[in-house]
Each structure stands twice: as C-alpha cells, then as structure tokens.
Amino acid sequence: MSGNTPGMDMTTLSALAEPNRMHIVELLRDGPLTVGEIAERLGLRQPQASKHLKVLGESGIVEAKADANRRIYKLRPEPFKALDAWLSSYRRIMEERYDKLDDYLRELQDKERQ
Amino acid sequence: MSGNTPGMDMTTLSALAEPNRMHIVELLRDGPLTVGEIAERLGLRQPQASKHLKVLGESGIVEAKADANRRIYKLRPEPFKALDAWLSSYRRIMEERYDKLDDYLRELQDKERQ
DNA sequence: AGGGAATATTCCTGTAAAGGAATATTTAAA
DNA sequence: TTTAAATATTCCTTTACAGGAATATTCCCT
Q1: B10 and A2 in contact by Cβ < 8 A?
Q2: Which nucleotide's C1' sits nearest to the alpha carbon of A51?
Q3: SS3 assignment for A5-29
C-alpha cells in the first residue's frame, strides 16, 4: 500500500509551534533546501538548524535525501493531510451561520445589559 | 465589520499542542461546556482546567459566556479558519502527484544505488 | 450579612526544551 | 592519507510551562 492518511499526531502541532521550525516549514514550502541554506536564510547557527530539522523529521513533517556531504530536506505531505483531516471535523464551527448566531446572541446580551 | 479572517497566530498551535487543551477543544466541538463539566470529563482538577481554558482563551480559541456562578465556554471559529487558510497554502504539497513523483524519484535512487 | 458553590489566581516545584559552544561524523578532493 | 566542507551530536545553562495545593473572587441563596 502507498497512500495512507493516518490520524493526526500531536507532535505535529508541537513541532510547528516553535517559530524557527514554522519558518523552516514555510521555507520548504517553495522547494527542498540544504541545511546550510536553511541556516543561512533564517540567521540560525548550523547546529540549531540541524536540531530543529531533527524534531521536524521525528514528527514526519520533513524528510532528508542524502547528496554526498549535503542533506536535502523537503516536506512530507502526510502530516499536512492529517492536520487537514482533523481540521475538517471543525468545519461546522467555521461555518458562517455559526458567526451570525454568535453575533446575534452577543447583541441580545448587550441589550439586556442596559 | 464582522466577518474577518486574519492571519494565523502562532499561539494557536502551541495552545493546541498540549494534550489536555486539545482534549478540551475536542470536547467543545460537540457544544459549549462549563468549567466543572470539562474538569470532570477530563479527570482534571478545577484549577488546571481553568488554567488551560485561560490559555485557550488568550489565543482566541475559546470564549466564555458568564452565567451567574458558572462560565460557559465554547469554541470561536476564527482560529480554525485561520489555520485552514494557512494549511491551504500547502495544498500543492498534499496533492497526489506530489506523492507519486516522490515514489518515482525514490525508485530511481534505489536503482542507481546498485 | 453569611455561607456555600463555581471559578480564577497565586505560589511553589519539577521538568522539558531551546540556544551556545565544542566536538564528532561523513564525504569529496588533493 | 591528510584536509576541508557540510552536517549531526553532546554537554551545559537558562527559561517556559504544567501540575499540586492553597487561597481569592464572584455569585446566589437564606
């Protein structure tokens, strides 16, 4: 089997919650990059970049392809798919109607307050 | 103005990355709940529930409606919309083609390795 | 006014995690 | 086989944060 979309991993969120790692992910959105390139663009020292990439790798967000000396990192689709699937169970809450009802109730409360 | 969908807040992710808070959010997905109800269902002590709800509130994930002694908490749609908007910029990476190309490159590399 | 219920806040402690600096590892090239 | 470049790992220190216990606050009721 090849294209499975498992449940969301909590480590996905904690990995993305760190600003430097989020920044790395946003960089990789435009294509694979080398550790050195990532470190340079983020103004990080190389060891920190490696550490953050390790965390991202352990949560499956990123994978590396060895190329001699270098390691080319890129995003893996699975965690994003899982996050999207999880988020979809909140579609009802994101609906427009939800907001309207909310505003309506808020108005009522404001009026009652006087 | 009423229906704005601002950019994603990093605190959304860190708030959700804590297991108890994620659990609270999943509970509230099915409807508003009282602090006591939340604490009871999660096996938390009341102060911890309040603390987690405070964090969720500060990141805008949750809001409370006062009802005498009690505070009824419910989800706010905005952070979920923002997360969805952010995720949508990764749709290309989630595409099926991405996986296929990936597998293809992997095959090539495996063959070259011999 | 006083008491009790529901919730919030404070203080303390332990722990996980991020950054800095140094070092180890791997690989290509001379 | 030594050297240098790219990356990973280790050790140390500091800080953020979660839980526990106690206390403060707010509100209703009598």
Answers
A1: no
A2: D8
A3: CCCCCHHHHHHHCCHHHHHHHHHHC
Q: Does the distance separating the beta carbons of B99 and A93 come in below 8 Å?
A: no
Judged by CB atoms closer than 8 Å, whether chains meet at B94 and A81 is answered as yes
Q: Which amino acid does the sequence have at B45?
A: R
Residue B90 confidence (pLDDT): 97
B8 vs A contacts (CB less than 8 Å): none
Q: What is the CATH number of domain A10-112?
A: 1.10.10.10
The CA distance from A106 to the nearest CA of chain B, in Å, is: 10
Q: Higher-confidence residue: A21 or B105?
A: A21
Higher pLDDT, A111 or A33: A33
Return the domain boundaries, chain B: 10-112
Q: Which residues of A touch B93 (CB under 8 A)?
A: 29, 75, 77, 80
B2 vs B93, which has greater pLDDT? Answer: B93
Give A39-85 pLDDT, tens digit per residue.
999 999 999 999 999 999 999 999 999 999 999 999 999 999 999 99
3-state secondary structure A30-73: CCCEEHHHHHHHHCCCHHHHHHHHHHHHHCCCEEEEEECCEEEE
pLDDT in tens, B27-76: 999 999 999 999 999 999 999 999 999 999 999 999 999 999 999 999 99
Cα–Cα nearest to B73, from B39, B103, B96: B39
Mean pLDDT of chain B: 87
